[in-house]
Amino acid sequence: MHKTSILAYHIRKRRDSRAAVAVSSSSGFTLIELMVVIVILGILTAIIAPKIIGRTDDAKVTEARVQISNFETAIKMYKLDNGYYPTTAQGLTALVARPVGSPEPRRWKKGGYIEKGKVPNDPWGNQYIYASPGIKGDYDLLSYGADGVRGGEEYDADLSNWDVE
Predict the structure, then answer these.
(1) Among 48, 52, 68, 123, who pairs with 60 as Cys (CB 3.0-4.6 Å)?
(2) Which CATH architecture has domain 57-160?
(3) Nearest-CA neighbor of 141 among 73, 80, 60?
(4) Cβ count within 10 A of residue 64
(5) What percentage of the chain has pLDDT greater than the value 90?
(6) Is residue 163 within 8 Å of 145, Cβ to Cβ?
(7) What digits encode the pLDDT tens for the residues 127-136?
(8) Whole-angstrom Cα distance, residue 79 to residue 164?
(9) Is 140 helix (H, G, I), strand (E, B) or coil?
């Protein structure tokens, strides 16, 4: 072999072995790198999870307020069409099914006044309480909160149409 071809052979061999080492050393993660990532994920979970989990109660209160506001709109539309609010006996069902009995609605809207054709429960699974005439107005609409019992504080507090802004 000539000197130049021997020299070229050694240079190529050396370059190829370096490339092989570079590829094999960067093809995976070390145990330490994996442990660092796991620790970081654990710390993030410990910080963020309580903030997200604690917000479900707040979200339910907000949902109840929105539902009460939607009921108020439907009840007012009912009155515009029929000249009076649904009675306590007719209840919120009068917003999804034409009430029978006295007073009979004159121009009840076909399809009802609530979009899904069903009176939703409050976010805690309890029925809303409706009374007309109400104690604090033409009608009262209440959710007894998370505990489902009259009264209470924080998430167990009652939500009503006169409290909703």
Answers:
(1) 123
(2) 2-Layer Sandwich (3.30)
(3) 73
(4) 22
(5) 44
(6) no
(7) 999 999 999 8
(8) 20
(9) strand
